[in-house]
Design goal:
alpha+beta, 33% helix, 8 helices
């Protein structure tokens, strides 16, 4: 945490961002994530390919990742993830993403991120307490276009395919060096009791009613991809 705080100050992000969020904030995060998926999948020329959605084992969305730079560059965001189980898609769990880079750079942006796990190892990555993209988990910028066929080589070598939307432009993105970690505080705040990520994402916890619009949206596009 001590190493992260100076970076957060540069980005204008307070240490309070690491505190647990209230239920209303978490409900809104789920709703924002639902809208992002809907918007992207309804853009035929820019959506996630059906061939990717068809093999998705987990879908993670981070609305409004904060990115900024002034000598130090960095990013911080909070998101949500659901995974495919033997009886549908799991209740959501909450994640954090953080990363940084050095360089003489200046500027900032708000970026929506989507991570698609395309195999069981990608799912295991998201079940872990923390991992670094590119070091602990193989990831690649995902192909774009609903009818685009993802290359076999790409999906065989990658556990996660990564996408971003900034200023209305949707594209694959290189997230090497970004750390993804469980947000246990927000997950406990949402459920009102502690639940392990493994327990939630393997389908052993019932989804709260407020998460169902988000889950229905994921299910909708997964099923459509299966039928194509």
């Amino acid at each position: 945490m001590r190493k992260i705080l100076p970076l957060l100050c540069v980005l204008g992000i307070s240490a309070g961002a690491f505190a647990s969020s209230g239920k209303a904030t978490l409900d809104q995060r789920l709703e924002n994530s639902r809208v992002i998926i809907d918007d992207i999948m309804n853009a035929p020329d820019q959506g996630i390919p059906s061939s990717i959605m068809k093999q998705a084992t987990c879908v993670a969305v981070v609305p409004g990742l904060k990115k900024g730079a002034f000598i130090f560059g960095g990013e911080y965001g909070q998101g949500v993830v659901t995974c495919r189980t033997g009886h549908g898609w799991s209740a959501p769990a909450f994640i954090r993403m953080a990363g940084g880079s050095f360089g003489l750079q200046i500027g900032g942006s708000d970026t929506d991120l989507i991570l698609i796990a395309v195999n069981n190892q990608g799912m295991e990555d998201l079940l872990s307490s923390k991992f670094k993209i590119g070091a602990d988990a193989a990831a690649a910028a995902g192909p774009v276009g609903r009818n685009t066929q993802a290359s076999t080589n790409l999906t065989l070598k990658s556990e996660l395919l990564t996408y971003s939307r900034s200023r209305g432009v949707f594209a694959g993105i290189d997230l090497d060096g970004t750390v993804v970690s469980q947000n246990s505080d927000d997950t406990e705040a949402y459920y009102g009791a502690p639940h392990g990520f493994d327990q939630i994402l393997k389908g052993n916890v019932l989804p709260p009613d407020s998460s169902k619009p988000f889950l229905r949206t994921v299910v909708k596009y997964f099923r459509e991809a299966q039928q194509e």
